[in-house]
Every structure is written in C-alpha cells, then in structure tokens.
C-alpha cells in the first residue's frame, strides 16, 4: 500500500541543496535537483566532479553535511545504507564490489535476502529467531519463499544471456571484469528496485560488451518503465542511447541540465572534459616562446 | 637542449604487460620520454593511462617488458628507490599528508635530499612558496583543510622540492575549476621552459596538449595513437576517447 | 575514607603513566603499519625478564635496563621482518593472528625458561618514600612519572622535528604518497615496531619495579591495558595516550581499592569495551578505528575481509581446491568413531577421543563465527566456559537434571555470546580481535573472582553426568564418549543446516564485503547476532559435555590459551569449512597426546603452527569456503 502511494507521487527523488566536503575539498556543492519517478537520468562530468559522491550520498554510504535527500517526501539522508536499500534504492559500485568467494548464484541471492525476510517496502515477515528456526528446520513457508527468490534470481541471470547463467556456480573472484559488473547489476536488479543507481556500469568494457550492456539496460527500460535510473557514466554514447535527461557536473556543481543531445553538444561540457580551446591556445604560445 | 648528444631516452617502456590480479591492465605498451621533453598519456577511464605512469614510478610491477630509466633497467625497483634515483611524483588525487602543515609537506617533498644543508632546503622552500603565492599565505595551515586547487598546488610544489630529473604527474586538473587549471598549467609551462622533463597523465586533453611535445592515446590497455601534440590535437581519436565519438 | 580515595588516585596516576607508554607503542604501530600488534605485550614481558635476568647474573640495574631495551627493540624489528612483512598481501586476518602467534610463543617460551612463577624484581628506589597527607609516593613512583614524561617529550620532539619522525608520520597518513616522496615505507613500519618494542620494554621494567615482581603471563593483560588506554585517548596523539593511560589507571585503581584487587583487570577490560560501544573514536580521537579501512574518501571505507580475495589479488591465483565432505559422509565417519569402545577398552583412548570430540564441536562453532561470518574471535573460550559453568551450576545448585542442563548450557552461552559480542558489531577488521580477546579475559576473570557463584579458582567439583538416556547408563566413560559424539553430530548437522541456508550465505556475504552487503539491503547486525547465537549455542554444548566429562569445572580451562588453540584449529583446517574444522580440531586436540614428553612445548607448537600456516598455507589443509 505504501508503495502505491510512493508511486503515485510525481517525483521520486529530491536532492535538496546537498553539500559534502572532504577536508577543504568540496565534492558536492549545494546540489539541487529532482529526479521524477520513472526518469532515466545520466550524470556525467570529468573525474573528480563529485558524481560518485552523489551516488554515495543517495545510497547512504556517506552522509551529506548540509541539505536533504528525500524519497517520496520522506527524508532518507540520515538513514543507514541497508535501510535506504530496503526502501527500494539499489545500486552498483564504481569499482565492482562483488562477494569474491560467493558464486554468481549466491551473490545474486544475497540481493533477495531483504525481500525474503521483509522490511522496508514490504511488511516484516521473519524476525531473527523465527528465521533461524525456519532455516534450521527448513519450514515449508520459508522454503517456498526461498524457492521464489531462486526463481527470480534465475530470471535475472538469464537477462544477461549466456554471460551469467552458464557460470552461475563460478565464484565471483574468478570472473572477468565485465562479468563482475554484470553480476553487480544483476544483484541490484533482483531486488526489483524503484530506483536503480548505476556507477559507471560500462567502465572497463570493450565496445561490443558496452553495446551488449546498453541493450540490456534498454530492455530493462522496456520491461520496467516505472523504474527510476540514475547512471553515472563516462562513455557518452551510452548516455546518448539510454538517458532521457543528462546532468553534467564539474567541481561538485551541476553545470548543465538538459537532454543528452543538448547537454553533450553544450560548449561548457566540452570545456569541462577537454579544457578550453582559448586558454589552451594561450599556453601553446608560452610553449612556443619557451 | 641544443646538444644533439641527448638521443638516449630518459625513460623507456618496452612491450609492457601489467596485471592487477587476474585482470590485465596494459598490453605491450611502448612509451619513451626524451630528456627535456613533455609527454602526455591520454585516454578514457580504465584505459591504463595511470597504470603506465605507475609502472615508471615503480608503483606497479610489469609482468613482461623492460622499464629503463636513465639507461638502466629498473624493473621491480620499488617506488621509493625510483624517487631516490631522480623521479618526482604528483600523484592522482593530490595525496596530501593531510594532518601536516604546508611547510611539513614541502619538507617531505625534499625527503631524499635530507642530507643537504638546512639553509639550502629552507631557501628552496621559500622559492617554492614564491612560485605559489596562495601557499605562502597558508604556510602553517594543515593541508587537509585546504581547497582542492590549493592542495594541487601544494602537491606540485612538494614534487618540485625533489628537483626531479623526471616529473610524473597524474591528472593535475582533476576536480579543479578552470581558474585553477589555468594556474596549474601556467606553472607547468614555466617548468617546461626551464628544461624540466615531464611525463603526465591527463583527462583535460586540450590543456595537456597545449604544453606537451608528444602524446600517447591509450585504449583498453593498448597504445592506439601516438604522435606530436599538434597531430593529436586534430585527431578525432582523442576526442572519441573521452566523448565516445 | 578520603585517604583511601586519594591514595588510589595517586596509584592510578602513576601506573597510568606506564599504560600511556604501552599505549604509545600500540598507537605508533597502528598508525604506521596499520595493524594491531598483539606482540606488544610480549615485548613488554621480554624487556622486564631480560632486565631481571641480567640483574640476577650480577649486572647493575642501570646497565641492565638499557641493554634490555636495545635487545627488545631489535626483537620488535625482527618480528616485523619475519612475521609481518611476508604477510603484506596475505589474507586480512593473517597479520593479526601472526602477532598473536608471536605473543603466544613468547609467553610459553618465557614460562619454560623462567618457570611460570612470579619472580621478585629488583626495585632499589622503592625504599624512598614521600608522604602526601596519609597517602605516599615511593621513589619508583617518581621515577615512573619522570621517565614517562621524559620519553613522551622526547618522542614528541622526535616525531615533529626529525626527518625520521616526519617520515613516520607521513607513512601513517598516506603510505602511498610517502613512497612517492622516496620514503622507504617497509623500513618505517619496521622502525615503528622497534620503537614500540623500546617503549614496551621500558614499560615492562617500570611495571616490574612498581609491583616489585614479574611473571611470564604479564604480556597479554598489560598489552590489553595499553590498548585500552590508547583507545580511550583516541589512538592518534601523545597527549591522548597520556590522558587515556591515566584515566584507565585511576579507574582500575579505584576498582581494586573499593571492590577488590581481583577486579582490577575486569574493570580495565570493561573500560575497553565501554569505549568501543560508546565512543569508538576515543575521548579526543578523530582517527578511524578501522585498522584496515584507512583513507576511505568517496569510495566508502569498509574493506573486503575475504580470505581468497586478498590472496587472488596478490598472486593472481584464481582457483583453490576445497575439500568439503557432504553431511552424510561426516556423520558416517562420526558413526565409525563410535565403534572405538567396541574395538578397544582403553580408558585413555576414550578420554582422548572425548576431548577431541569436544574440541571438534568448538572448532565447528568457531568456524561459523570467524570463518563464515568473518568475526575474528579470540575470546571463544568464554562461551565454552559459560556453557560448562551453566551445566555445572544447573546440577549442583539448582537441581536441574543433567539432560536438561545441556540445553540450558547451550542457551546460556548463546545469550552471553549475543550480549557480550554486541559491541563488536560496529567494529571491523582487527579491532574485533582485540575486543573479543578482552571479552574472553573478562569472562575468565569473572569466573575466577566471583567466588560466591563459581567458587573461584577452586572450581566446582562433583558435576553429575546425565544418568539415564534412552535407558542407557550414561555414567561410564564409554557412554560419555558416545554422548560427546552425539553432541558433535548435532553440532555438525546444525552447522550444515545454517551454512546451506540463506542465513549462512548472508554470513559469508558479510564477511566478503560488508559494505556491499549493507548496500544490498542485508541487515548486517541482525545476521551477526544470529551467528553469535548459533556459535555460542554450540560452544555451550561443548562446555556442558566438558563439565560432564571432567566432573569438574574451573576457570583455568577457559583461559586465553584455549581460545588460541581454537583459532589455530580452524586456520589449520581452513576457515569456514566444516570438514576443515573437524580435521583441525581433532588433529590439534591429539597433538599434546602425541607429543606427550614435550607437553610443556604445547603452546609454543600451537603458536608455531599458526605462524607457519599463515605464511605458507593461509587457506588451511582443506581450503576456505
């Protein structure tokens, strides 16, 4: 019931004048924008612009020092990471954080645990001791829920074609870089989140792998149009193909907020990435003189 | 550098492979830096550009290939010894000794010169501070409380204290406002004009190519393009490396 | 009344200065090498005993002390070189357990060399006394204060002025940047161990003079107190260490004055726990307590604690062979062992077999906690002890039948584990090891001192075995052996059920990457409490079986030695692997029987096995799961 209320709201995620400093370095400077429910938002910008810090704050890994983050009117920036996840925000990490010794199947099943015991979006189903006894005695109710979760995990694994499914019993540390990223995305997707945060999902993938991932996310968009996606990504063609809106960050602030096509043609963006031609020319002169 | 004698590279990487655990980061990379040259390594995220410089610094070990510095094979030499041999480093993300003052950071920059007289080192600290007036105002400030731009300047001044034969720089413009980027490059251009040899990794391609003599573009651990700064400036591959075409 | 108070405060301040010295050693190593050094206490003991020996051989004490300090410094640096530097890329628990193994080897070797007795320590200054009202200070007290203040001032100058000191601080703040300044970071780490050794030796000598005695087991308690002081002061500053040391000294001094001398250490270790719960950054500290976390920045701090991840990262090896027998095979093997009484009537064999079964249960219980959930527990003997006492008291004092006492012992140990280990939930990395060690010591000391209930060191005799079970007389040794095997079978079944359920999978996920587990919505605290409960329950069953086997319970069965033997067992077998735990448990339980003539070398052997395994086969015999 509460989920239907959340979904009826026109805006899913509000970033309200959020600031975060590390010592004297400002990683997020009064960030202020709204992500409507169901939007695919891409966040781009050069290294050190504060993109990852933004995702860390939304997911509760680090806390903003000023400002608020709200989800459907509820303030979430003081909540613990796992509580934010239980509200329906799932994420991947910039440097993949897989569970090295767990198999692919086990890793994805970890994502289902919160749904299994309930809490957050769903009513609490199992208290700690009830779960302990249910697991120990393999009580039918618990077993049925685990079986349902397994089925869901299989469904998600199969979304990635023959990348994850045939390797489901391989341990995560033995996977290729690209497969670790897929595994992380699968672990997030199995939770059927309302908001999916992707931190550079295509980093380290070659062009064909990148295309493949782009297709998977596009397919996901088709199946779950209501899911909000916030994606930090350096590969701008991925952004062009997938996102509906693109925020460009530099030095902890939003410098452009537009459609991907508009944002990526904006001279300020090119400047942020490649530097200004004007001052570059000036140094060219110094160079020639020296 | 008018002498034609200097035909021997100061640094050369030959057919370098580097692995992080099971993941290969560099595939047969070749890079050379001649004395007095400024060379830039460009590339997108995870292209291996930082790894290239880290290989020179001895921070990562090449699984295959040769690393030569000053004519000697230095494969597997630990980083602190490479610094003693004459490298200077401005690390990615600046890496301040954040609980120490500006002055202490600068002193540590001259750690390998600790045998020299105190007067000489103090004089050089003053010289460094004169180069960066913003640091001079903050000489006793704890470095971690300074802004990103100020920290970048301190990292530069700290490396300069080493009087390096070769200065390795990893992403000097990362996270900086255009004003600071301009200042960083102004100083680099001055150093270059004074004959310093520089190997840098940079995302800000236009800026880097404005002071570089030559450049390499890395893509997924391979060198995809190499050429003079002027050639690279008009090369679409460079643009594509960042903006994805 | 006021006089007692004043004199306790004075005593506390004086001994507090010594704690501050130990604390500084801890903080230095923690800061520079990023590990918690259990061997700090061993170095303290070594310094004290070297001085003691030289004086006994006729050297003047003023000559003996500097020589002892020099030797201890060198030993500290040698420990770093031999036991820690080779482990740079080893699994995260390796360096911690390695220093623990060193501590045990030193401890046991000292007992062999100098006997386990308390030795009189020369203290020429004790005869000078100055009265402060009715309280008094001796020459030793003044010496302690003067030496400590002098050393701390010197250390402060050294760290802020000298090149070496600056390099040490730089290494502590950012080792990678320090390397890029040309600083030899491994040498700095080694140097910090040397400095810690010097500080420890000095502290050991001062303690010897203060109490006019030394004993071989002094290392661990004083090491823990030094850590408590360091933690209280925030782990980062010299003034913090002084204040932490003095506060701790005053606390425990008041406790010994008003509650009883036996409670002195209980209070000290409880302060440690209280700080961990209430203010893990200490009173003044801002440093992260996470010994592995270091600079976290925007990437989120909590590091992986995976055994294999760190190994694969270092070696590029991506496959390991794991020996894991199915449940039915394990149960069949246990059933085979049940035939032993039929084949041989030797009481000796049955006794050893029962012991081995008890240790196997304990190893299974610990491998769930430390191996599967990644909570390094160096206090596991506590729950074994709680179970044993619960079973003993149930029969003797409360008239509960022995059959029910089993269940009671398990539940009591489970509840104790959940309550006592609760403070460790917020900790990660090596700090957990220290906290659990403190918990183990607290439970041991309470058993020793709470004479009304536990009868203290005399122990509880006459524990009645279960009389009748399914019509079988359970009083005989044969029956006890079978009973122990049944307990083992139950433990194995429970462990299997847990590990192969979503709960076990969640434990392993928490161990592998706690941050990723949080971000995947796993309520981490809940699952840690569950592992405390299950692991505690099994340890409690083992405790009850132990009480019934011995007919007697006393605190010395639950000393830290037992906890360390258990750690060695699960590391030997392979962390998180039940088959491995059984193999390791049985092998190491039999070891003292095999080496009967060398029984006194037992703890040295355990320490050495642990040390060599960590270095050469961190995945254990059967492999990690």
Q: What does this 3D model show about the protein?
A:
The complex is a heterotrimer of chains A (290), B (245) and C (625). Chain A has helices spanning 2-8, 51-58, 81-86, 104-117, 128-137, 140-159, 177-189, 207-223, 236-242, 260-265, 267-274, 277-289, and strands at residues 11-22, 25-36, 40-44, 66-71, 74-75, 89-91, 195-199, 228-232, 245-250, 253-258. Chain A is of the alpha/beta class and 290 residues long. Chain A is globular. With 245 residues, chain B is α/β, with parallel strands linked by helices. Chain B folds into 2 domains: 1-86 and 164-245, P-loop containing nucleotide triphosphate hydrolases (Rossmann fold); 98-162, no CATH class. Chain B is 37% helix and 25% strand. Chain B has a 6-stranded mixed sheet, sandwiched between helices. The relative contact order of chain B is 0.18. Chain C folds into 2 domains: 2-287, no CATH class; 307-616, ABC transporter involved in vitamin B12 uptake, BtuC (Orthogonal Bundle), CATH 1.10.3470. In chain C, the strands form 4 sheets. A two-stranded antiparallel ribbon of chain C has the order 1-4. Chain C has a two-stranded antiparallel ribbon with strand order 2-3. In chain C, strands 5-8 form a two-stranded antiparallel ribbon. Residues 287-304 and 312-318 of chain C have low confidence and may be disordered. The chains are: A alpha/beta (290), B alpha/beta (245), C mainly alpha (625). Chains in contact: A-B, A-C, B-C. The interface between A and C is large, with 49 and 41 residues.
